[in-house]
Design goal:
alpha/beta; 3 helices; 25% helix
């Protein structure tokens, strides 16, 4: 039988959706929650640190911190094709943390991006078939997006 765990990290991140029909075309920010959903078998090897777990939650936290949080927290994520957005960020120069991405930074696209950053680092331990099955991104308390391969 398979078990699923989830662990999340939150960031304060800015973005804009340049061709949006409404207010999201303006620069703004969110308190994002990036939540990893991991599936696998519980470790049954006696005496190991992960006995009774899929993976230690602190290990998942460290991966999320390094590959998601530390990349986009207190940064502005801007689409490489958004000339106005990139120009606005460039005005601040080195005083501004800008992350240029090859996609419009919607919650849906950020979920896929985060999955791709985290997935290579979810390693199977003790033959328990660990797999990152989804990345959930909360943009607002009422708005979530999920990406699954």
């Amino acid at each position: 039988m398979t078990t699923i765990i989830r662990r999340y990290v939150e960031t304060d991140t800015g973005h804009r959706v340049p061709n949006h029909k409404s207010k999201c075309q303006h620069m703004h920010g969110h308190r994002y929650r990036f939540e990893a959903e991991i599936e696998g078998d519980i470790v049954t090897d006696s005496g190991v640190s992960e006995e009774g777990m899929l993976i230690d939650f602190s290990d998942v936290s460290a991966i999320l911190a390094q590959y998601v949080h530390d990349v986009v927290d207190h940064a502005f994520v801007v689409y490489s094709g958004d000339e106005k957005g990139r120009a606005a960020c460039a005005v601040m120069g080195d005083e501004h943390r800008t992350v240029v991405v090859p996609f419009i930074p919607t919650a849906e696209n950020l979920a896929k991006w985060a999955f791709e950053q985290v997935e290579p680092h979810i390693k199977t331990s003790y033959g328990n078939r660990l797999k990152l099955v989804a990345m959930h991104v909360r943009e607002t308390p009422k708005s979530w997006a999920t990406w699954k391969p």
